[in-house]
Here is the input.
Amino acid sequence: MPTQELTFSKKYNLKHALKYHDKHRDTLSRRLSNWREQAIAGKALKLAGQPATVLDLPCGTGRFWDLLARQKDRTILAADNSSAMLSVAREVTPPDVLERVQTFQCSAFDIQLANDSVDHVFCMRLLHHITRPEDRLAILSEFYRVTRHTVAISLWVDGNYKSLRRRKLEARRTHKTYRNRFVLQRRLVEQEFADAGFTIAGHFDFLKFYAMWRLYVLKKQP
Here is the structure.
């Protein structure tokens, strides 16, 4: 059975949600990183056909809402497992963007929407937290259920300098500590996409051959 309450999700109280919002803006390197992720996300939306109805899950503190709202006729649904994240998102988002977004609380394991209710699921910074294959399949199956057409999903993959460096670092550790972020084998996760009923329309790398972060665009198959 899937893990319905993941360990890392318990940390997102109000204090941590505020810190999460600030961290993408507090240094030049993080602002550049955010700019790059926003640009890649825009390319993914274009590849997905500029979907008219988008579910942003997990939406965090609304980092991508401005990007999603640039399509004037787009309906934006935004959900997160953390009520604190949603509260901060509503507080920090400009009113003209916020009025475009319908927010609600739910888990990616149990999305409170009907089958085929959105054109696109937009999922940033979730799957690299999920270590168990059965949990990833449970989430992907929910995405398959609620989307009519496509999913954009980010994760960390192998086959690059940073993943090799991380693997060597983990091998040198003399004691086991709790980890909530994982690098996945591309071959493995791409097979999991297929097992959930998706084909890969394309992918975008943060920095090819260097960075672990990759954004896949998946297409739902009948």
Summary: The chain has a mean pLDDT of 89. The first strand starts at residue 53 and ends at 56. Residues 2 and 134 are 6 Å apart (CA to CA).
